[in-house]
Write a structure and sequence with these properties.
By secondary structure, the chain is an alpha/beta fold. It contains 16 helices and 24 strands. Helix content is 34%, strand content 25%. Strands 6, 7, 8, 9, 12, 13, 14, 15, 16, 17 and 18 form an eleven-stranded mixed beta sheet that branches. The longest helix has 16 residues.
Length: 474
């Protein structure tokens, strides 16, 4: 079958293209502004693609057109699909029909930690010899790719709550047929898609109700909304969390004690060792080759899901100890004259706080310089400004970029980087706002001292700041 993907250069679409190609389908695609590494990946997979949208890209007519969720009405190629009445569908539905329906699906959802947990889970199952297929929202350092068509009957998928396509505004995760579902946590996000907390919660409520009674629902016990949804879930629930979560869980604490709890955390520069208490019994300690309490939460969820899918405790231990994270998750981009530059995808206040905590664990005693770009729709909202004030206050020094799309916001709705910098400084954390990447690079490099750890956080390219800063430091 010939599949044509409009918007093929997106992370998920490019991965889907690779899966379709691996299954033996003919795959073509188009996008605008395609650059390495995606252009190189498509070329290496032997997938023809065109830079630019045009009705001519649909000649000869494909059997199926997959419309990426970034494609909207007015796109000339999409308009031609509609005019010619070609068969079109979404990436999520294509994934379901081509790959998920005849496999046992382990779907990882939640506001934070999806990509890392999905990667952990896939790697543990690989260490268990189960050869899973997977689709991850980032490049796994263990596998060197974001997708694979494995030999086993398991498929691990990152279950995103973002919308499916312009013609299907429901979240992608509703299409994924979960057998085992992981919900790490639930905290309002994607304000451009969900009008309020109630709508956001409903997306997960429906997802939870898709898990069959023969399956399993692994739920992070540290967020109240996730706990509430778990109480009404039809499938068997396995709560997971840190020992301290029992204090916050209140009446739900007993449920966590009957699930999986991580205790005796021993963080260090090379990772974290912890003990798992399962149904009241302490099991052999695990060592995770990643820093931060949030990563222990991710690891606990991945381990619980993996064991439910058939992985042994030995395979779980091997997988976590040899886990190499995902690109753009606390990824060291370079070190110059004792200054370490880290790239991280964090863009929600909770994720920013977790990243800085993880950096403290990995680099104890060093000065942490946080550089943050308010880029996502959520990150640019005034509603979250106090959250960033609390999260960024954990750094020793803060540099703030301007809003990515300031024209979308007014004084009442938009985050104000200058005000945030002033508030952080008042709180005791020196903070500066610069409106251009060039000015940020000059300021960071000019004030850097040996031993600094510069943590750059954005969910986009941030104007190539990582390479520019390393060049300037050199």
């Amino acid at each position: 079958m010939h599949y044509h993907l409009i918007g093929i250069a997106g992370t998920a679409m490019g991965s889907l293209a690779g899966l379709l190609r691996a299954k033996g389908h003919r795959v073509t695609g188009s996008d605008h502004g395609v650059y390495p590494p995606m252009s190189t990946l498509l070329d290496d997979m032997g997938i023809p693609w065109v830079d630019g949208f045009s009705p001519d890209n649909l000649e000869p007519a494909p059997d199926r057109v997959v419309v990426g969720n970034a494609i909207s009405r007015g796109n000339p190629e999409l308009e031609a699909v509609l005019d010619r009445r070609l068969y079109y569908t979404s990436a999520a539905v294509t994934l379901k029909e081509e790959f998920l329906r005849d496999r046992r699906v382990l779907a990882v959802a939640g506001t934070h930690g999806k990509t890392t947990t999905t990667s952990m889970l896939a790697w543990i199952l690989e260490c268990a010899g189960l050869s899973p297929s997977f689709l991850i929202g980032g490049v796994s350092e263990n596998f060197g790719t974001s997708f694979r068509l494995g030999e086993g009957d398991l498929f691990v998928v990152e279950a995103d709550e973002y919308d499916t396509a312009y013609f299907d505004k429901g979240p992608k995760m509703w299409h994924y047929l979960p057998w085992i579902a992981v919900v790490n946590n639930i905290e309002f996000d994607h304000a451009d898609i969900y009008r309020d907390d109630v709508a956001y919660r409903f997306a997960f409520e429906r997802f939870v109700n898709l898990v069959p009674r023969s399956g399993r629902l692994v739920v992070g016990w540290d967020t109240p909304v996730a706990r509430e949804l778990a109480r009404g879930a039809p499938a068997p629930v396995l709560p997971v969390g840190l020992a301290g979560d029992t204090t916050e869980a209140g009446p739900d604490a007993s449920a966590l004690r009957s699930g999986w709890t991580a205790l005796d955390l021993d963080p260090g520069p090379d990772g974290t060792t912890f003990t798992v208490r399962s149904a009241g019994v302490d099991r052999r300690p695990l060592t995770l080759a990643a820093s931060g309490r949030f990563n222990v939460r991710n690891a606990l969820a991945a381990a619980a899901a993996a064991e439910a899918a058939g992985a042994s405790w030995e395979a779980i231990g091997e997988g976590l100890q040899t886990f190499r994270s995902v690109r753009r998750r606390m990824e060291v981009r370079g070190e110059v004259d004792g200054v370490t530059v880290i790239d991280d995808f964090a863009h929600h206040p909770t994720a920013v706080a977790a990243t800085l905590e993880g950096v403290r664990d990995r680099y104890p005693g060093r000065r942490v310089v946080a550089v943050f770009e308010p880029r996502s729709y959520t990150a640019q909202l005034r509603r979250f400004e106090s959250g960033y004030r609390n999260a960024l206050g954990a750094a020793d020094r803060v540099w703030l970029a301007g809003l990515f799309r300031p024209e979308r916001y007014d004084d009442e709705t938009g985050l104000d980087p200058e005000r945030l910098a002033a508030d952080l400084t008042t709180d005791g954390t020196p903070a500066m706002h610069r409106s251009t990447v060039e000015a940020l690079v000059d300021g960071i490099a000019g004030s850097a001292t040996p031993g600094d750890v510069v943590v750059i956080m954005s969910n986009g390219g941030f104007g190539g700041i990582h390479g520019r800063l390393l060049d300037r430091l050199g």
